[in-house]
Amino acid sequence: MGEYFLEMRNITKTFPGVKALKGVTFAVQKGAIHGLVGENGAGKSTLMNVLGGVIQPDSGEIYINGQRVFITNPHEAQRLGIAFIHQETSLFNFLSIARNIFISNLPSHGRGRIDFKTLYERSAALLKRVGLDKDPQALVKDLTVAEKQMVEIAKALSFESRIFVLDEPTSPLTDREIENLFRIIRELKNQGETIIYISHRLNEIFEICDSVTVMRDGEIVDTTPITETNKFDLVRKMVGRELSMMFLQRDHRELGKVVLEVRELTKKPYFRDIHFSLREGEILGLFGLVGAGRSEVARTIVGDYRRDSGKVILDGNEVFFSHPKEAIARGIGFLTEDRRGEGLAVEMEVYKNITMAIFWYQLRRGVNLDLGREKEVAEEYVKELRIVTPTIFQQAKNLSGGNQQKVVVAKWLCAQPRVLIVDEPTRGIDVGAKSEIYHIVANLAQEGMGIIFISSEIEEILGMCDRVLVMYEGELIAEVPRQEMTQEKIMYYATGGERVHA
Fold first, then answer.
1. Which tens digits make up the pLDDT trace of 207-226?
2. What whole-number distance in Å separates Cα of residue 53 and Cα of residue 436?
3. Residue 141 DSSP label
4. What residues pair up with 450 in beta bridges, in sequence order?
5. CATH of domain 258-337+403-494
6. Which of 213, 372, 442, 491 lies 20 to 30 angstroms, CA to CA, from 79?
7. How many Cα atoms occupy the beta-carbon half-sphere of 34 within 13 Å?
8. What is the pLDDT of residue 91?
9. How far is it, in rounded angstroms, from Cα 280 to Cα 447?
10. pLDDT for 90-147, tens place per residue?
11. Could you give the dihedral angle defined by the CA atoms of residues 66, 79, 36 and 44, in that order, rounded to the nearest 10 degrees?
12. How buried is 317 (Cβ within 10 angstroms: 0-12 exposed, 13-18 middle, 19+ buried)?
């Protein structure tokens, strides 16, 4: 019992029609950073909800530091020293940092009078511990996402937490903010705290974790030291099959004519003098670190941002879009990186999400929408893209991240664009769903669609693109053809290497 600080033994949980956890035994050593990975639906969230007292298991036992505990609600989990840090914080924006940290345990002089001196002193000490240089009296609403996350960690430390569960904590963060978060995690480890780190980003698992547990279909597949495995081994265990072909092998072929051209496009302060062309059947990568201006270029092309100067030429004719719906009507689709906020109407049914963009396609063709075919068309795309949903009448919010992304792809296929811009198309989805998205995009290119593929993951760029444009601080700094692409070369340019044009 003394080997592990946390042990969850033989945990089972059944929901109507689904056995979410099948006798799971999960153990973490004291002072370790332990990764937890698996596809969406593997059981990770259910297991952590049991640990957090959000749901009760049908059977099983939990031990902390050798003592059996009964976690009947989140308050009991907190009392036992278990803290959860999610990608979306649960702070009160219009309260101070200090009040948020001690929201349920405000120091007082008695009779309900807050001891502000003690409150601010304790808060300042905790903020220093997590490396956040902010006034404890500052309002949370004025903080960045990363700073709010630091406040959440400070809040957890105020409860003298001993187990920290970080669930996809880096999704909204910049590279520099991720480095700072990892520094704090390592400091917590050095202080003897126990960390469970959940992420779809396997590079992070290998960078920060000491060991990793793989879950699949409600069961533990394997637990191993991080030094004794590799990314391909983890992927194989997560999906239950060999993924030697994550990317579709695309035969060398002649590309079609230039379908889109951008000339000296400028939108200050985001980017300036961007110039490139896109051919039919081509997947053109756009790579750069956070803040390089990649997404802003895409939004300016489709009219979401108004350009300062420059030209966008579609099929040889200059176009100027004042709204993305005009770009849709002319045959340019844009799969946004924020699928829940912009790509999906999450409260609407799957079939309505799939067919919503067809209105603009029909407008472009000058014909009326056949409302009688709406559900039939949606069914065709659900089948073609293998969207896992019990029915097309299911609300989009109830689908997994990967299936939500495929619904967004289906929406744009329904509109039959000439050009499709995809911005971080696999962000936040599991490896199996990523592979399916890669194959869908590659097949679209083989059918002649021009694709602009924006990604912050170099492996995607190397695996998907015919050539890549690299941006640095708002400038197009290099163009690299497929045969010359290497991770080292692309990162060299992305971090400010010499300017090179093909």
1. 999 999 999 889 999 999 99
2. 35
3. G
4. 419
5. 3.40.50.300
6. 213
7. 23
8. 87
9. 9
10. 789 899 999 999 987 888 887 778 889 999 999 999 998 888 889 999 999 998 878 8
11. 110
12. exposed
Tokens 């289906």, residue located = 410
Confidence of residue 329 (pLDDT cuts 50, 70, 90): confident
The rounded distance, in Å, linking the Cα atoms of 52 and 335 is 35
Identify any residues that bridge with 422 across adjacent strands, giving them in sequence order. Answer: 335, 453
- Hey, how many other C-beta atoms are within 10 angstroms of the C-beta on 56? 12
Strands 450-454 and 283-287: parallel
Residue that has been written with the tokens 């308050």 in this structure: 75
**Domain at 6-239: CATH code:** 3.40.50.300
Cα torsion through 90, 91, 92, 93, rounded to 10: -110
Strand order in the sheet with 475-481: 332-335, 419-423, 450-454, 283-287, 467-472, 475-481
How far is residue 331's CA from residue 258's CA, in Å, rounded to a whole number?
Answer: 14
Looking at every residue in the chain, the average pLDDT score rounds to: 86
Percent of the chain at pLDDT exceeding 90: 45
Q: What does DSSP say about strands 163-167 and 194-198: parallel, antiparallel, or unpaired?
A: parallel
How many helices (H) and strands (E) in the chain? 17, 22
Burial of 173-203, coded b for 16+ CB within 10 Å and e otherwise, reads beeebbebbbebbeebbeeebbbbbbbbbbe
Mean pLDDT (whole number) for 470-496: 88
CB 170 within 8 A of CB 199: yes
For 466-477, b where at least 16 C-beta lie within 10 A, e where not — what string?
bbbbbbbebbbb
| Amino acid at the residue 427 | R
- Confirm if 464 and 285 have CB atoms less than 8 A apart: yes
The helix/strand/coil state of 180 is helix
**Residues in contact with 296: Cβ distance below 8 Å, sequence separation at least 6, in sequence order:** 267, 270, 271, 305
Strand partners, 108: 114
Please give the radius of gyration of the chain, using alpha carbons only, rounded to the nearest integer: 25
Residues 6+ apart with CB under 8 A from 23: 10, 11, 12, 60, 219
To which residue do tokens 């989140």 refer? Answer: 74
Cβ neighbours for 80, distance < 8 A, ≥ 6 positions apart: 64, 69, 71
In this chain, the answer to whether the domains covering 6-239 and 258-337+403-494 adopt an identical fold is yes
Q: What is the mean pLDDT of residues 235-261?
A: 75
